[in-house]
Design goal:
The chain is α+β, with helices and mostly antiparallel strands. 13% of the residues lie in helices and 24% in strands.
Length: 78
């Protein structure tokens, strides 16, 4: 939030669960196109999963398993 405040950019805080929030910032441009940068810092525990967490499961065209979208480089971009 300090990042957005320092740059005087509007943002909102979306509460998801207790002590878990999304921070959504908006940078308006002059184009009619939209760009979304998404990043997260949470991790997933494999204990108690109902599928093999290291195999990955493709079901109905979706990939299930921990870490398949865990790229932290998005945090640097954001």
């Amino acid at each position: 939030m300090r990042f957005f405040e320092k740059l005087k950019l509007p943002y909102l805080v979306q509460s998801v669960e207790q002590e878990r929030h999304n921070v959504i910032g908006v940078l308006r441009g002059s184009f009619n196109e939209n760009v979304l940068f998404e990043a997260h810092m949470d991790t997933v525990q494999v204990q108690g999963m109902t599928i093999d967490p290291f195999e990955g499961l493709i079901q109905n065209g979706r990939l299930y398993g921990p870490g398949h979208v865990m790229r932290k480089d998005h945090l640097r971009l954001c």
